[in-house]
Design a protein that fits this description.
This protein has 110 residues and is mainly α. The protein has four helices and no strands. The longest helix has 30 residues.
Length: 110
Amino acid sequence: MEQTTWIQRLKQRWKLGSAFQVVVVLIVFACTGFTVLFLKKPILNFLAGPKGDSTLATILYYIFILPLYNVILLAYGFIFGQFTFFWEFEKRMFGRMFKGRKREGNQESK
């Protein structure tokens, strides 16, 4: 009985061609996360001054970081040759985020 590795499961789930491509995709996610981590303090300083610890600044940071994260993810995806995968990933993610709102709107109009 052959056991499926986590890389093989990700390869199937993400519909990727090779285990190497799975590793590259994981590297892109890691690079994006580290970039956002390094940008957090400068963004908070910009929003709230040197202390950067106000509640409003933190809320604004989380509002601004989502689109910024997605742009950075696409940029790293392009750099690492995986732009198509991440473009499709973004479309699926935003489709799931806004699918519920479309359904609610359609039900109200009927």
